[in-house]
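Tutorial, part two.
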Amino acid sequence: MPDRQGVACFMSNVSRNGDWTLPRLFRTVCVMGEVRLDLTQIRIAPGTSEIQVITCMGSVKIAVPHNIRVECVGSPVLGEFKVKRVSKGVPSPEAPLLRITGGACMGSVAVRVIDPDAPTGAEKLRRWIEGKG
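Running the prediction step on this input gives:
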């Protein structure tokens, strides 16, 4: 498993989805663009992994499966940094922990915890990532 990876987006769009491995530290920088991270099919190691997000006049959307614990702490300036739990499922205390940190300046960081296997979960996820829901 890699220790560090990341994406950078300047006036463009970047997305990561499907089956991929989340490293211990994943950095995301977004300036006047959009980054979409779909973590619903990721491979993640036990313990703590972190996504560090910096966005300026852009948006970062992160979809997290309900079976991973999530901590989200960010510092928005004229923007937002939020978590919405769509799934009623609760991860076990031994589940991997995903810590999302960073800042948003005139931009947004939106994290959605979802059950992709729920009857409407996949459709809700698709619409949210596409910006339609």
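The chain has a mean pLDDT of 89. In part three we will examine how such features are distributed along the chain.
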